[in-house]
Amino acid sequence: MTTHGTRPETEIPSLMFPTGFVWGAATSAYQIEGSITADGRGTSIWDSFCSQAGRIVEAHNAEIAIDHYNRYRDDVRLMADLGLSAYRFSVSWPRIQPDGSGSYNAKGLDFYKRLVDELLSYGIDPWLTLYHWDLPQSLEDAGGWPARDTSKRFADFAATVHAELADRVRNWSTVNEPWCAAFLGYASGEHAPGRREPEAALRAAHHLNLAHGLAVQAMRAQSADSQIGGCVNLYAISPATGSEADRDAARRIDGLQNRFFLDALLKGAYPEDVLEDLGHISDLAFIQDGDLATIASPIDMLLVNYYSRFTVSGAPGGAASAAAAPTDSGSPWVGSEHVGFVNGGRPVTAMGWEIDDAGLFEVLTRLVDEYPRIPLYISENGAAFDDALGDDGTIHDPQRRDYIEAHLRICHAAIEAGVPLQGYFAWSLMDNFEWAWGYGKRFGLVYVDYESQVRTLKSSALWYADTIRHGGLLGRAQ
Questions:
Q1: How far apart are CA 38 and CA 28, in angstroms?
Q2: How far is CA 290 from CA 293, 294, 332, in A?
Q3: Active site (catalytic) residues
Q4: CATH superfamily of 17-477
Q5: What does the record give as the active site (predicted)?
Q6: Whole-angstrom Cα distance, residue 31 to residue 117?
Q7: Element (H, E) at 396
Q8: Could you tell me the residue ranges of all domains in the chain?
């Protein structure tokens, strides 16, 4: 089913999606908003991280980003022009609670009320993510995610936002990609807060899971009508060879990347083999009685972010590294630092990530086969390419169109196979601040000139709008 960048010279059939399928695009607050000191916003760990020399490519920062804080009305009109039925965005914790606790900052929360009202005025359903990595710096100073109290502060934050917006927002997710927040933030140091403390990363991972469960409980106590879910970034994972070392490497990476979070959220337990892998790093005493039951609080949906496949090797010295991080980072693979990531020979994006749409089918069908049945949504899927503004003012990006189309075809195949997949959100709506990579990597359907802030629809955006309008993929000769 995979295309791997080549297509047969035949007509590709049309594929229509079920009525009610959610067609969306996604962003995150820190990557687009800018205005990092406006209206009482506090400092986040990413503000601090960006201020440190050598952390971000070309010393970029998000002080302006793409100025969505001031341009949100124009951006919502762009969404309407594309025909989006839903928009997934995150709220900035330090904009709403500058110090991470206590009463909320009315001006900060009012921005999101205005944004939601604007979306609703165009018939676009707001999908709100509570945490996309912008922890208030004051909470990091108090220990950050390795500290158990941060989970409690997050639950309070969730309750605060939910109480103010649940009358207008039906769909909520808690923590975006807890793997990244824990292991890139506290083990490899590639992401904020830039710590390289493997044991602390394990505590952070557990407390992010716990924060999810506590937030679900807090919001559920306020409203039975809200649809609440968790959000995980999942990978298809393959051993480089059939050797015992490579198969064990695949088990280890699958355990830390996928099962550590899925099993906790959906089964109420951490995988025993993963705990054994981690036993020499920590005694895991931070996992307290009742935590797993809280983490597994019933949810209404699971949001899945999918980008690529990992091919891994456990052979000593036999692994070629995947795309290098922009900074000199340690390993995020706590307890399995010896595992290497091998080039599988597939085409890659500008991030160096291999394109493997077939892996998405593996991920989705695995969720059905191995976990309790639950509605699923692809909450992020997309690719960075080296887009350029043409002399005629257009941006032609057929690689991105092909990437999204291939993954949508996999989504359709998964639905036909019985997967309860109910929506797709492209990442990202617009080019933006790409974390440690700064502004050098463009994922957007919409091109942003970072100097003028002019937005231009790429050819992939026009194609996606046609796809949405027709309710599915139109056949085309290749």
A1: 17
A2: 5, 6, 27
A3: 380
A4: Glycosidases (3.20.20.80)
A5: 380 (nucleophile)
A6: 21
A7: none
A8: 17-477
